[in-house]
Every structure is written in C-alpha cells, then in structure tokens.
Fold this protein.
Amino acid sequence: MRPVESLRLAWRAITGHRLRSALTALGIVIGVAAVIAFVTLGASLQVGLIGDISPDDQRNVYGWAADPDTEGGPLAGAQPVFSESDVETLDDREDIEAAYGYATLPTQALVYGDEVSPQGDALVATGPSYIRDETLEEGRQFEPGEREAVVNPAVAEQFEENVSVGDELTVALQGGQRTTVTVVGVTETVEGLSPFEGFDPSPRVYVPTDPYYTEDLAGAMPGASDEEDDGDEAAGENGSAEGTLFLAIVVEAESADDAAVDRARESAREYLESDDSDAGRLLDAGGLAVTLQTSTELLQQLQDVLDLLQNFIVGIAAISLLVGSIGIANIMLVSVTERTREIGIMKAVGAQNRDVLGLFLAEAVILGVVGAVLGTALGLFAGYLGAWYVGLPLVYPYEYVVLAIVVGVVVGVASGLYPAWRAARTDPIEALRYE
C-alpha cells in the first residue's frame, strides 16, 4: 500500500470519530502549549532583565556587607560598614573611575504645593553617575553638595499637576523633619535603576548623599546623635568608624570590559578588607563579609531561580505529554479492536502486515502532529499574551517550536507502535469471524 493511500485511510478513520480524536490529541495540545508558553515567557523575561542593564551599568560593581551565611538577593542582611572616608579613598584609587555610597531613607510623605502624598522609602541617596544620561527623559543629573533631586515618573505624575524640571518638592522624613529639593531631572522609566532597587515600578526621589544623607538625613534618623557619641567611644576601644556609614556602595570601573571590571572589583575588595579601611575593622568586629557583584551577576542569580521554576513547569508539561501519549495508545488499541473485521478483510484481499502496520502508525502520527501544531499555535499565542500583559519584550524560542513538532511525531509513533504491531499480527481468519 502506498504511503499516500495509508495517510488517506488514516485521515478518514480519524475524521470518522472527530470528538474522540479531538480528545485524544488534547493531551498533546496542552503539553506542547504549556512548554512553549512558559519557555517564551522565560526567554522574554531574560531579555527584559538583561535589556535593563545599559552599557554604563555593566561597568558598575555593587557592594554590601552581611553575614557570610546569609542567603538572598542584593542587600540581604546588609549592615552599614562603609564610611565616607572609605568611599573617598576608593574614588581616588587606581583602576576605579568613581565610587559613591548608596542608601534609602525612610520617608513619610511627598509634598508638592498644597498636595500631600503618603510615601515610605521614596528617598534614594547616591552619587550623580548613578543616574545615567540615557535613563533621563528630561533634565540632567544632580550635582554633589547641591540640594537637587531627580525623580521618576511615578513621583512626577502622582500629583494633580505633574512635577517638572525646576519645581520644588518637599520630603517629610520619618521623625517629622522636612527637607526641600529642587527637581533637576525626570527619568524615563518607573523601574529601579539598579539591582539594589529591584525593578518594581515604585516612586523614587534620587538625591546626592552630600548633603542629604551625610548631613541632613543622617542627623534626622532616630538616635543619630547617640550613635555619634557611641561611635567616638567605639573608635577609642575598637578602632571602628565614626560618623555616617553607608549600607552599600557602588564602584565604577574605567570601562565595561570584563578585565577592567575585575580590576576595579579586586582593588575595592583589597582596600575594604584591609585594616586601613573603616569597613575592614567593622567587618572583622561583626564577623561580616563584603560582597562585590555586577548587575549581570546579580541578575544571573534571579535567572537561575527562574530557570529552575521554568524547568519545573516544563516537567509538569512533559507529564501532560506522557498522559497524551497514553491516551493515543489507548484510543489506537480501541480502534484496533473496533476494526478487527476490517483488518481481516484487508488481509483477505492481499494487504500485507506492513500495510496494516503503516495504516495504524499513520493514524497515531497524524494525531501527534495535529496535537503538536495546535499546541504550538496555542503556546505562541499564550506566550504573546503573557509578555504583553507583563510588559516584556516578546522573544520566541524558535528551536522549541521545531522541537514541539518533532516531539509530536515521536509521541505519535511511540504511542502507536504497539497497537499497530498488534493490528498487523491479527489472524485474518479469526478477524473475519469477529463481530
């Protein structure tokens, strides 16, 4: 029997039982669709995260100090150990382009004109180059020592009249103190600008550490004056740092080249872990370890978690494929039983075992391919909807589309082998007697 004739007969048998055939292929459809949808979302999320790392940010090294056994992302278990002196020394070291502190300050509200917007942890004190030029929608970076700020759209658009460059914004701190900033820039995105912030769309006001953290805000923190007195005493006893301490620091390499980044990292680590630094003495006293990582390395940790989750979900989808293959095998066995007399007639008129084998294999392969094609289309559409809803750039892993078709064929062949073999071995005389 010619292959075309086998396919024609197989298709007629499938369309003769449309509902049963559709339910049989449904397991393949669901399994393939789930695999493609989640792999598409995973690839889109990876590109979305990596896309948030600009060329300038790729040369940044982010540092914090925590217990060596602490698990988690950036700043997990972080303790303030980096002094102003440490930051200034790093800024002057060879292989380091710039260094500055990073801290978030607890706030109560943002005030613009007569409007008050309750807001906690909206103030981010950092260095001017933390705000990269390509992230600005309008305006410029703030200047160190000036009472200036850059806000993101979540802040600029939350009042009845939008905040723009040149406007003044009042920040109410925890403890009741107020400080006024002049807005000199607005970022183009509401997402965080570094792994320290995450990438959630939160209101943020970026200000220079000097004067808002090292002078005004540090002094406004509860118990700040007591800490300074205690710091004097500790300096005498343990040689620890006095004054303002940063929870984290950012070290900029001379370029985004891997070698330059590694040199900046090692230079910073060498100094921070030495007895010459305030951080080094505090690290030893508290049993802490300093972590220095780039954005790519920090996001890779997140990507590893996402890959693990994606593999878990793909594993569940693979179980669905297994269930689908069992369904095909079951239906094919039923079909063999129902068509026993037909098989006997085919053999009586000269059909060979290979003809019967090919006929039932063709049915199983058609069910597998149809399920894979429909599942692929459904998975691509679901991936598109998911990426659109989350706001991610759409990336289709085309290799998985091809793999889905191959899996459909393999599942069809594997599921139909035994039923087809059983049909081919049917005794024609017994088959003709079957009712």
About this structure: The first strand starts at residue 60 and ends at 66.
